[in-house]
Structures are given as structure tokens and as C-alpha cells.
Specification:
The complex is a heterodimer of chains A (362) and B (85). Chain A has 362 residues and is mainly α. Helices cover 79% and strands 2% of the residues of chain A. Classes of the chains: A mainly alpha (362), B mainly alpha (85).
Chain lengths: 362, 85
């Protein structure tokens, strides 16, 4: 109970500026989530911490906003026929196991190496995952764009074709987004990795969405929509776990939710106006920019652990500020791309409607 | 022109105002009673369900409000991808 009493006294005082800031960051995070199925979380947690919220309370409150946001987003995108509920739940169950294991690893690292060690672990995970997956996704989007096939139907990868061809008796399940039966022996590790990443860097979707696309062969739009189901399952389980320890600051969670529900609806609507490869563009761009943001913090934690020469306070402050600014920029850029694509799509539709009206009158 | 009129959906002004008012009410209640709420919600154990249930209530009310909000503003899905059953 000691940590509960401590946490209760660590709920920050809220003022108007904090509330507006959290609402706006929530909105942008929700917009990006509604579009690519994830994101926003990695800005919200440090965003809350920059207001003085203790790390664990920030993560817990973020989780408590994540599952209702994901629920609303999933329901909206289900209306457009983009959600594979069965795949989401199947992946969600192993993701939940991944979250619990990932949280356990985090706790052990924190006990052994303290806050600096824990932060270094998180940052290294960020850098490795974002570099590998982000560059891969962006390269794929670039190849599609250069080949001029962005208007054609997506082709599934050789890997996904192989995965769909494997038949293991007693483990096969049909998923509508894949239009194929796939063994759960493939979905189990993918879901588990998604959950582990969520527990580590708060964004499981950076593994979840690409794995659905490239390993299982789901179309980009359905992968990003189905990720919202996984996020709901993980968020609900994670929130309950943190709430049992009294770590959720319901005010922060609901204020962020206030903004993110506006954003997620808009992001979901946005997906109906864009070509599927735009999902990869937005996802890849955000991942690569955040890679730099997190990369800047690695020397800070190395210095705190005494693994490199101690950095001066002014250097540390500069690195932290730049890192945070780059992160905000990544999200803002993602949001801008989504809104621009939506705007262009709507304008094109209006123009086409006007032209057909003129034709029909003639 | 009758068929065109039928095709123009009525905007959900009533629903958005109703959900908007309830949503604002929820937020005012939340912020006006911060200390009591956080005091109870952070107790752990069975009290853990309080923030979860609160989140579901907010998501229902505010989720409906935000959905209707965009519809009233005319921001809707592409006609090519309208709702499928």
C-alpha cells in the first residue's frame, strides 16, 4: 500500500495551460492513431512527464485513455469495413501476455539499474525497433510510389504468401482480412512481440501493424484498423493492472481522451480518402523522426549511468529539449500529412461530383 | 428533385447538442471533484474498477458527441467508402 499512498500524493496540480496542452496533444495523438492504428502514446507519456507527472503514473494514465480511445476508433473504422475483429482478439490475447512479460522485464531492469538504466533500455528499444521497422516501412512506401503502383491493389509479400501456405493441423484459423487460414503458431509470437513492445515503449503498433501487413499479408487499411482492437485489449488489461496499484490519474486520462476522441474520429474518416500506401508513409515518417528524438537521449542516460564521461547540466537540458521538440514535430508532421491527404481527397470528390452534375444537366 | 432531398441525410444537431451537454457536464464534475475522485480511484484493490468504468462512460458519451460533431460539420467518410453493413 506504500506505493499507493505515495502515488496519491504525486498527482500533479492541474491548471488551464496544462489542461489545454494535454487536450491538444491528445487530439494530435488521436488523429494519428485513427489513421495508422497507433502512435500518440509515445508522445503522451513523456508529454505528461514534462508536466511533472511521475513516470509510472504517466504510463498508467496513458493506458487508461488508450483503451476507450481504441474502442471508439475501432467502432468507427468497423463501420467502413476495415476491422478484422477475430484477428484483433487473437493477436490481442498473446499481446496481453507480451505486455505482462514486458512489464516484468521493465521492473527487473529498474530494480537492477535504477531509473537511468530503465530509461536507457527503453531508448535503445526505441532506436532499434524504429530504425529497423521504420526504414523498412518507409522504403516499401517509397518503392510503391516510385513504381507508380500506389493506385493499384496492394500485393502481399513473399513472406506472407509463405505464412499463408503453411498448414499445421489443429492450429488453423480463418481471418477475413487475410482471406486465408493461418496457423495461430504465427500469430502467437507476433502478438506477444506487439505486447512486449507496448510495455516497453508504449507503442505496440509499430510491430503490430507492419507484422500484420508484411508477415500475415493483411491490407494496410485493415492492419491499421485491426491494431485498434489489439490496443483496446492491451489497454484494458494494462489499465486494470496499474489501477490495482492505484497509479491511474483519471483526470489526466480523461482530459487526453477529451482531445483524442475528436482526433481519432477524424483520423478514421481520413483513411477513407487515401490510398493504402499512405498508411505506410505516415507510419514510416513518424518512426524515422522519433528515432532521432530518442537517439538524442541515449547519451544522457549513458552519462547518468557513468558509462560515458558525465555531460554538463546545460548539455543534458539541450538534448532533452531538442529530443522533445523533435518528437512533437514527428507527431505534428504525421497529423499534417493525414489532414492534407484528407483535404485533397475531399476536394477531388467535390470536383468530381460537380462535374457529374454538369454532365447530367447537359 | 425529391430523390435528392431524400438522399440528403438530416444532420444530427439534436444528438450532438445532447451528448455535448452531457460530456461537458462529465468533465466539469471530474475537475470540480478532482481530490475526492483521485483519492478514491487510487485506493487499489476493487476500487481499480472505478477508473475503468469512468473511462467507459466518458468514451460512450464523448465518443458519440465527437462522432456527431464531425458529421454536423460535414466531415464524413468518402462516398466511395460509405458505411458497409
Amino acid at each position: 500500500m506504500h506505493d499507493i499512498a505515495q502515488a496519491a500524493t504525486n498527482f500533479i496540480d492541474l491548471n488551464t495551460a496544462n489542461i489545454i496542452y494535454l487536450f491538444l496533444v491528445g487530439f494530435v495523438g488521436g488523429l494519428v492513431s485513427g489513421f495508422i492504428g497507433s502512435g500518440g502514446a509515445f508522445v503522451l507519456t513523456p508529454g505528461m512527464m514534462s508536466l511533472g507527472v511521475p513516470g509510472l503514473v504517466a504510463v498508467a494514465s496513458n493506458m487508461c485513455h488508450k483503451f476507450p480511445k481504441a474502442l471508439v476508433g475501432a467502432l468507427k473504422r468497423a463501420k467502413y469495413g476495415q476491422v478484422d475483429v477475430k484477428l484483433g482478439i487473437v493477436l490481442g490475447i498473446s499481446a496481453e501476455a507480451g505486455v505482462l512479460y514486458g512489464a516484468h522485464v521493465q521492473e527487473n531492469i529498474k530494480k537492477a539499474f535504477g531509473d537511468a538504466g530503465s530509461n536507457l533500455y527503453v531508448s535503445v528499444a526505441f532506436v532499434v525497433v524504429l530504425a529497423v521497422v521504420g526504414i523498412f516501412v518507409l522504403r516499401d512506401a517509397w518503392k510503391t510510389y516510385k513504381s507508380g503502383t500506389q493506385h493499384e491493389e496492394e500485393k502481399i509479400t513473399k513472406l506472407a504468401r509463405w505464412v499463408q501456405s503453411i498448414h499445421i493441423p489443429g492450429t488453423m484459423v480463418y481471418f477475413k482480412s487475410l482471406n486465408a487460414r493461418v496457423s495461430v503458431l504465427f500469430t502467437l509470437p507476433l502478438g506477444f512481440a506487439t505486447g512486449m513492445l507496448a510495455a516497453t515503449i508504449a507503442v505496440g503498433g509499430f510491430v503490430g501493424v507492419p507484422s500484420m501487413i508484411y508477415v500475415l499479408g493483411a491490407p494496410s487499411l485493415m492492419a491499421s484498423a485491426t491494431e485498434l482492437v489489439i490496443a483496446f485489449v492491451m489497454g484494458l488489461g494494462g489499465s486494470l493492472k496499474y489501477a490495482l496499484h492505484g497509479l491511474v490519474d483519471i483526470r489526466l486520462a480523461m482530459i487526453i481522451l477529451g482531445g483524442s476522441l475528436f482526433g481519432i474520429q477524424l483520423g478514421a474518416i481520413g483513411t477513407t480518402y487515401v490510398k493504402p500506401f499512405m498508411i505506410k508513409v505516415v507510419m514510416g515518417v513518424i518512426m524515422v523522426i522519433v528515432l532521432f528524438s530518442r537517439g538524442l537521449m541515449v547519451p544522457v542516460y549513458l552519462s547518468q549511468l557513468g558509462l560515458i564521461q558525465t555531460l554538463s547540466d546545460s548539455t543534458v537540458k539541450m538534448l532533452k529539449t531538442t529530443s522533445f521538440a523533435i518528437m512533437i514535430f514527428a507527431l505534428a508532421l504525421g497529423a499534417f500529412i493525414v489532414l492534407k491527404a484528407m483535404w485533397q481527397g475531399r476536394q477531388a470528390e467535390k470536383l468530381a461530383a460537380q462535374e457529374s452534375l454538369v454532365h447530367s444537366k447537359a | 428533385m425529391a430523390s435528392l432531398d431524400q438522399k440528403i441525410k438530416k444532420k444530427p444537431f439534436g444528438a450532438s447538442i445532447l451528448f455535448g451537454v452531457v460530456s461537458i457536464g462529465l468533465y466539469i464534475t471530474l475537475l470540480a471533484n478532482q481530490d475526492i475522485l483521485n483519492g478514491n480511484f487510487a485506493k487499489g484493490g476493487l476500487f481499480a474498477f472505478l477508473p475503468i468504468i469512468t473511462a467507459f462512460i466518458f468514451s460512450y458519451v464523448h465518443g458519440n458527441f465527437t462522432g456527431h460533431f464531425w458529421t454536423v460539420l460535414g466531415v464524413e467518410a468518402s462516398k466511395k467508402k460509405r458505411e458497409v453493413k
